[in-house]
Every structure is written in structure tokens, then in C-alpha cells.
């Protein structure tokens, strides 16, 4: 099937990530999309540097964005320049030329989305913007397609990683805002001019987009209430904690009988809520629908490859939807029927994971030596251990061991030998352990 | 635009929920889908009872499933009978008749998915099954469409609410399995014969589906390793806790160089992980992709309306994808362009939420009376309060109050009056508080 030709505007962090992911996972993506998606042109500021870093594989690199949006061979334009201009002009030109557009530009969508979507509608063109909110979390898709049954009641999200990192650090370490901001800047989590992030403007851009797709209203960024975290003190974070709350910078949009709330501000939320425990640069969005109840979506909200994940998902979506033939629908099993794999399912003995082992042993010398010798002989190493005191009047003690990763068949062999020890009574309890890191 | 006619097989919990949601949110769903989606036929066991409960609005109720799948006016058949037969025969018959199918039947998909998808492929028909895994959480869509850029590394999920409820209760209350199971049965969270849930079979059905779409392999339910929670003791839950872990029944599927792991079993996971804190009947699925990193999806995994949420989302998807015209694509703002709403954005003064107020006051009689009088006069009621001891050598104390929901303009008025009190020094700190319940 004919490949889809993509033109990139921008090859910075997200542009580079997009190219990298498309190249690295080309086979996997083609198995899913049913055709190759390849970047054939890219417009950058520094052509020489981009050629050195990303040249080859038939990629034409230019410093003229107009050349990309006007090129007759380009099917989809991906706008990753950021900011309002020239992004807006180039996107509108791409649409005028009948090219579909994918963008990660939240400011552009929040401020000029109404104009852009109207132009796209006129031309029968798609403008996809999953990467504009929540980085790699498919939150636009979840609300726009996954929850179509629902009357959405409200959306509340941690949608700016920089401020969530700062708030997490202020709480963890009891440090004041200024000091943590400096640390975030040193780590590259905050920009030299951090205003957009810390004053809530970036979050308000994203919230404006979420509000529009949740309630079916136009983009109204100018009506968003925006309050940042720069005035927040560590005392208030501590008092909130004492009362059972965490402070997060939330974007909240809610439907009421009087109208729609659209607001970004530091917010106390009960510490037991899952979203209160989203730490560091991670993002999470809570969506309340009348049928589904509360659902939560969590993941990395920024960074080269997480954002590229959303950009490429949009490319696959546009590829599928732009072609009317049934062969380009979402395949039942995510991959095209002729691209299914015959990788074998592993028998349990060959599974590698960590283990919790509990055994009941007589409290006498040498027991632990016998057990640990058996584990060592089978190459099983111990990560943690508890030996409980014997209960009053009992001769036996519980020994609990956590192992490092090992093959299940080795653990089974070890258990058989441990159970055969005279000093161990009854069966060994075996549970598996996953770090999910 | 011509309405889509839906035929339901089954009007039990999920079928009833689907009909209810489609009727209640008809306007919202039409605004999204661009055309009406209406249930015109339903096959049930007890026709009389169903007529009493759901009759009217042009709904034809029959006890003959064949009449639904063979009716020429039906566009989409929704199978909500559960079990393998007659579900399988009816679904295959619907496909043979050229009708798209939506199903919530995990056992059917896990065991006969390969046959069903092959038949659907031959006829150019769609079979959608979002409701088969994770209830209302759009997890199939997230993996199949949202993460297409990624080489998926592993998926780990709490995908059975009954067992998660039992494990949460065992841990919270230190009770043994049998006792909590009996409680779960009394509450309707566990069935009279709980085998499917507690032995992990239901989770293995769902995991089989997740594995297939994550890795592009056929359904291989017979190769899934399945171990339930019925032998789990409260002692092991407590020991795990001491070591910093929670025990959850996880479905895990992982890609390794040797093959694919496919296993359901009780699993220790670090207590600090978000997924370790998913309690009660809630479900959550963690997906690790090479580009996006770890993403988490959380929500209700069962119940009439959460499951109906997924069924209806599939109906909207099939409606959109089955028609080739651009007008039926996913609209940019989730709702059709001519169905956007002009609901106003509320000014902040009209926003109703709870508040955290911190004020610094001189430690003298009557201060608290003055402050609480001001709040009462403005109709603001207090939910919690802390008054801190004055620090050594200081005359002032911090007073922190949490309010119940109130209008922001009333809080602003109260703050103005409180700041005017001679006994209060400096500005009142105001933060908003959301329960997100």
C-alpha cells in the first residue's frame, strides 16, 4: 500500500523524538497502520545541524517551512515549532493545500483553534492535537471517543509537569518555592523564564482544550481563570497535610446549571485520592462522566518520546481515517490481520520475576543456613528477609524472603528441596512480586 | 442524517444500562455521533417483564435472538447475553448478515475471538469489544489507538473488581478470605458461585484480550496461567505490608526475548505505586510502551452504566467508521461543528467550591468569635479548623479553616472583612479545595 509522506515543521525536542520513534518502531507502526508512515521532509532553523543529526533515509531538510506545507508529495504536516507565529500561518496554509495537520501546539489550539478547525472543516481536512494535552497520555482520545456515551460532569487534571515537580519537592523536602524552582531549572524541568509554567498559563491552554472537547464549546482561553503556584508557601502545604490534603495545581472545568467553570489554581485535594499521589513531573487527568463515573488517565506529560507517542498516534489515526476503505479501519487486534505475530506464550517455568516465599521452620541452629544454601545453589539471590519471633509456647517461626528476579522453575525446585528439610514444616507459600518500575 | 438502528441481545444489567444511557443521553450522543443511535429491537428471555420495564419508544421486544440478528433494518447488533452459546452462534449469524457487532462478552472474545474476527474480516464487518475489558475504562482504545507509536513492553492490570474488593477488605480489616467473600456475596460484589472471579478465570479472559492487542498475537486463552486468591492468607497480606508491598490480583502480559508471558496471579507490588492504591471494586491497567513510558488507566470495571459507557462508545465508533464520508469522522471538538453549545464560562465570583483560609491573628479573646461571625453572616459554614499554638515569644497564632462549598464572591467578601479586623494581621491566604468525589 502507498506510504504516507509526512512533513515535519521543527526538529527540536519533540520533532527529533517523533522522527526517532517513527524510525525505530517503523515495523511495529506499519503492522498497525497497514502502510508505511515516513518523514520525507523537515523544516528547521539550523539545516546543517539537523542534517548531521537526522540526515539520510531520504529525508529532505530545509529551512523553509513554506516548502513543506506547499510540497505536493506531503500528505500530513506535523507542526512542532510551538508558539503562535509562524505556526498559525503554516498550519492554515497546509489546510488550504488540502493537507491533514498534526500538532502538539497547545497555545495555538487554545487561542486559534476555532479559526483552524473552521478552515479544516471547510476543506474536509483533519487537524489532530493529542500531543497538545498530557504528553503521551491519550486523554483527548479518551474523552472524545472513549467516553462518548457520557454527559461529562467535570474534568480535573494535573496537566503541567513542572509545577507538579515543584509542589512534590516542596512537600517532600519542606523547602520554599524559590529554592525548588532553582533546582527544577538546574534539572531542566523548568525553563529559564518559568512564567508560562509556574503562573498556570500552560495549564490553562491545556484546560481550555479539555473543556472544549468535554462540553462541546468553542475554545475560550481568554475566559480561563489562571492562578499559579509562585505565592504558595511551605507552611500552607504543611497545614494542608495536617488536615489530610495535598496541594496540586489543578486545571478544573465543570458543568453547572449557571455555566461552565474554567479555572487553574493551586487546589487542596484529599490525600487518599489517587490523583493526590501523582508525584514529580507526571500528569494525570480525572474525568467524571454520568454513566462511567470517575476515570483517571496517568502518564508522562512532556518529554521527547512521550510527546512523540501522541504525535505518531495521531499520524496513524489520520492515516486510517483519511482513507475511506475498510482495510484502513482500526484492526480488531490492533495490528493488521496479515501482520499478526506467532511469538509463543511462555510456560510458567520460563517466566522470570521476583518472589515472596514464606516458610515455617523450627527455631533451631542451622535452619537459615540450610535454606539459604538451597537458594544459592539454584542461583536465587535474596532481596529482603524477615524472621519473626516464635509465638508464646510455639517452636516454629515464620521466615519470609523476597528474592531478586529469577526463573520460576528454579524457585519451584528450591521450594521442593526446602519442603524436604526436616527443620521446615508444611508447604512453602510462594507469591510472585513485580516492581512495575 | 439517517438514524442507526441497534438490536440488543439481552436486557439484563448491562443491556438495561445500555438502553438507559442511550435514552438519557440521546441528545449528547447525537451531538457527538452526528446521527441518532436508537435501539429498535431487543431479544430477552422474559418478554413480559422487559416490556414493563423498558417498553415504548418504538422498541420491539422479542424472545427470539435470531429475529434480531436477521432483521433487515438492524445496522448493529449488541450482544450482551454473556457465555459462549448462543452468543457465538448469534454473533456469527449477525456477521454473516453483514451487521456490525458490539459485545461486552470477554469469554466469547477470549475463546472464539479468532474465529469471530476472521469471519468479520471476510465480510468487511466490525466487531467492537471495549466493554469486554475494564468496564467503562477505554483501555482497548488506549492500547489499540492511543499507543500505536509504541512497542508495548508489558501490560499489568487489576481487571477483576470482585477480587480487588476482597483483597482490599482483607487488608483493611485483617479478615480471612472466607469471611470477606461471604460479605462480598451479601453486597452483590461476588456471585453465588464465585469461581470465575476468585480463581482468576475472568481476569484471564480479559488479559488474553489485552495481550492480543498489545502484541498483535492471536487470542490464546488456553495458554494463560491462572491462579486465584482463594488460598491467600491474611498473614501473607500483613507480612507483605511490613515489607512495603500490597498484594493485588494482577493480570500480567509481557514481551520477552523468549516469548510472551501471560499470567494471572496474586502479586506483591510496591505500596508506593499508584496501582497498589487502587481499592475496592475499581479497576486499573498499567501499560508500558517504549516511547511513552508507563501510563495508567483507572475506573469502574463493572456495573450497568460503566459497562454501558463502553458499549455506547463502541456504537458511536462503529457508526463513524462504518460510514466512509468525512462528515462522520471524529469531530475536532468531540461534538459535530453545528452542535457546539454556547454555554457561558462562569466568572470566578460565581464558582462554588470549598476553601482553605489561613489567617494570622493576635492570641486574644473574641478573635475567633469575630471571624466566625463574619463567615456565618455570609452563609459560609466551616468544615474543619486548626488553631496553632503561638510560637515562643510570638503574639500571633495561625488559624486555618476549611469551609464547605460556597460561592467565591462570598469568600472574597468575608476575607475583606476579616482583614479589616484589628485582631488579624496581614492578608488572609485563600486556597480552593476540591473533594473530587
Automatic annotation (TrEMBL), chains A, B:
Pathway: Amino-acid biosynthesis; L-methionine biosynthesis via de novo pathway; L-homoserine from L-aspartate: step 3/3; Amino-acid biosynthesis; L-threonine biosynthesis; L-threonine from L-aspartate: step 3/5. Pfam families: ACT (PF01842), Homoserine_dh (PF00742), NAD_binding_3 (PF03447). SUPFAM superfamilies: ACT-like, Glyceraldehyde-3-phosphate dehydrogenase-like, C-terminal domain, NAD(P)-binding Rossmann-fold domains. It is an enzyme of class 1 (oxidoreductase). Keywords: Amino-acid biosynthesis, Methionine biosynthesis, NADP, Oxidoreductase, Threonine biosynthesis. InterPro entries: ACT-like_dom_sf, ACT_dom, Asp/hSer_DH_NAD-bd, HDH, HDH_cat, HDH_CS, NAD(P)-bd_dom_sf. The keyword Amino-acid biosynthesis applies. GO terms for molecular function: homoserine dehydrogenase activity. This is Homoserine dehydrogenase. It comes from Thiobacter aerophilum.
Amino acid at each position: 500500500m502507498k506510504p504516507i509522506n509526512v512533513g515535519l515543521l521543527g526538529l527540536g525536542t519533540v520533532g527529533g523524538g517523533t522522527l526517532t520513534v517513527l524510525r525505530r518502531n517503523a515495523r511495529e507502526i506499519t503492522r498497525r497502520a497497514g502502510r508505511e508512515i515516513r518523514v520525507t521532509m523537515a523544516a528547521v532553523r539550523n539545516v546543517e545541524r539537523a542534517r548531521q543529526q537526522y540526515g539520510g533515509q531520504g529525508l529532505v531538510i530545509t529551512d523553509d517551512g513554506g516548502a513543506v506545507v506547499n510540497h505536493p508529495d506531503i500528505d500530513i504536516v506535523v507542526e512542532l515549532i510551538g508558539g503562535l507565529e509562524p505556526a498559525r500561518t503554516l498550519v492554515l496554509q497546509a489546510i488550504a493545500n488540502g493537507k491533514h495537520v498534526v500538532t502538539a501546539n497547545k497555545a495555538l489550539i487554545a487561542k486559534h483553534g476555532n479559526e483552524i478547525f473552521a478552515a479544516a472543516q471547510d476543506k474536509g481536512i483533519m487537524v489532530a492535537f493529542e500531543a497538545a494535552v498530557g504528553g503521551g497520555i491519550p486523554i483527548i482520545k479518551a474523552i472524545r471517543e472513549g467516553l462518548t456515551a457520557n454527559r461529562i460532569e467535570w474534568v480535573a487534571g494535573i496537566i503541567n509537569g513542572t509545577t507538579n515537580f515543584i509542589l512534590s519537592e516542596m512537600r517532600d523536602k519542606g523547602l520554599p518555592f524559590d529554592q525548588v524552582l532553582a533546582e527544577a531549572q538546574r534539572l531542566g524541568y523548568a525553563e529559564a523564564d518559568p512564567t508560562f509554567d509556574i503562573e498556570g498559563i500552560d495549564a490553562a491552554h491545556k484546560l481550555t482544550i479539555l473543556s472544549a472537547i468535554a462540553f462541546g464549546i468553542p475554545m475560550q482561553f481568554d475566559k480561563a481563570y489562571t492562578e499559579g503556584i509562585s505565592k504558595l508557601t511551605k507552611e500552607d502545604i504543611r497545614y494542608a497535610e495536617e488536615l489530610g490534603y495535598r496541594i496540586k495545581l489543578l486545571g478544573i472545568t465543570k458543568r453547572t446549571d449557571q455555566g461552565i467553570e474554567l479555572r487553574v489554581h493551586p487546589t487542596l485535594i484529599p490525600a487518599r485520592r489517587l490523583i493526590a499521589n501523582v508525584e514529580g513531573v507526571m500528569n494525570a487527568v480525572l474525568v467524571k462522566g454520568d454513566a462511567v463515573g470517575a476515570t483517571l488517565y496517568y502518564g508522562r506529560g512532556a518529554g521527547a518520546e512521550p510527546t512523540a507517542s501522541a504525535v505518531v498516534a495521531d499520524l496513524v489515526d489520520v492515516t486510517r481515517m483519511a482513507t475511506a476503505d475498510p482495510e484502513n479501519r482500526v484492526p480488531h487486534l490492533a495490528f493488521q490481520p496479515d501482520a499478526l505475530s506467532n511469538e509463543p506464550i511462555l510456560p510458567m517455568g520460563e517466566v522470570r520475576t521476583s518472589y515472596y516465599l514464606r516458610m515455617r521452620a523450627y527455631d533451631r541452629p542451622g535452619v537459615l543456613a540450610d535454606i539459604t544454601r538451597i537458594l544459592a545453589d539454584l542461583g536465587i539471590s535474596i532481596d529482603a528477609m524477615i524472621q519473626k519471633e516464635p509465638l508464646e509456647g510455639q517452636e516454629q517461626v515464620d521466615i519470609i524472603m523476597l528474592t531478586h528476579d529469577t526463573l520460576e522453575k528454579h524457585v519451584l525446585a528450591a521450594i521442593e528441596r526446602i519442603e524436604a528439610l526436616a527443620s521446615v514444616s508444611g508447604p512453602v507459600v510462594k507469591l510472585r512480586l513485580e516492581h512495575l518500575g
